[in-house]
């Protein structure tokens, strides 16, 4: 009896199951994945979607927020693992992206995909994608500033362009290694 109580308590609840299913399906199929597919994959009732997220738009925004936190942690880890030299720390981002883009299940940048798929500019997902890009910019900016380059904000913008270009190209041309090319360009930008 006690054992069955513990087993029941360790299984994720409807909110977590919805987030997990939506994070996976929206990446594989895009943010326009059907509500029925999400509910079926999460094994939850439609009511749970509305109770926890107010509807599919809220769920998609929360999935992007959760993915952004995970992705920013991945960037932070790559930067931290590269030591103290700011140039090496910034170039490590492209080494990490090479692994990400080369993975067989890579489907592109979920933030760009969401921005392109969601035509309504007021969709809550757009605010999340803007916040994600701003947070990534703020993560890179101190490293660029430490290099003492002229126009550090411009250099950071260029690195952001290389990152987003790497992710877009990796999705469009699966056999290419765009992160390696982007790393080479970044080396030129960083001096």
Automatic annotation (TrEMBL):
- Identify the domain of life: Bacteria
Residue numbers of the DNA-binding region are 34-53
For this UniProt record, the keywords arranged alphabetically read as follows: DNA-binding, Transcription, Transcription regulation
Q: Where is the HTH tetR-type domain?
A: 12-71
The transmembrane residues are none
Instruction: Give the residue ranges for region: Disordered.
Output: 172-191
Q: Name one Pfam family in it.
A: TetR_N
What's a Gene Ontology MF term here? DNA binding
Listed PANTHER family: HTH-TYPE TRANSCRIPTIONAL REGULATOR YJDC, TRANSCRIPTIONAL REGULATORY PROTEIN
The protein depicted here goes by the name TetR family transcriptional regulator
Q: Which organism is it from?
A: Phytohabitans houttuyneae
